[in-house]
Amino acid sequence: MTIKLHCFGESGNAYKAALALELSGLDWEPVFVDFFAGETRSPDYRANVNEMGEAPVLVDGDIKLTQSGVIQQYITDKTGKFGGAPGEKYEVLRWVLWDNHKMSSQAGMTRFLINFLPAEHRNADVIAFAQGRLKAAFQVLNAHLEGRTDRGPWPHQCRSQLLRLSLLSRTLRLRPRRLAQYRPLAFQHRSHPRLESPL
User: If pLDDT is split at 50, 70 and 90, which confidence band does 195 have?
Assistant: First the structure.
């Protein structure tokens, strides 16, 4: 049976779930969620897809899961991939939770403020604050990777993908509709060289 992922291309959380599915080799297909037209706020979506009104949502037969970290763990449990070596489960989980709370949440908020909020509602001080939080997250990850040459658990296995998810859009079949219009997050690659180093 083909796994279905309710998702949309502008969502970083949907990209994380789609990336794990794609790299796992599982048979899956995206189900487009029209987030910007309000689909996730509709009574039908909340009653039948996700009561939280969010995407992504993974459906595998009778199993329905929400939250990208839970979806990633499900894919790991189902395939035996991406979990690190025996004994590294909690280290991997630690970084998944850190990403969800400190990296992806800040990146998502910053992307929304810069690219999707109408220009007249974009507050420069709020954007600068969000960029500062994101920069702090990049610094934590960069410092953790400094001097490491091993290929231990996440984020070491995935550091190049963290900042290159948009390049995978063709493979993931989730290309955002207006990609060329997006403004960058003001991330300076030279300030965080370990995030861009090859695996």
Answer: low
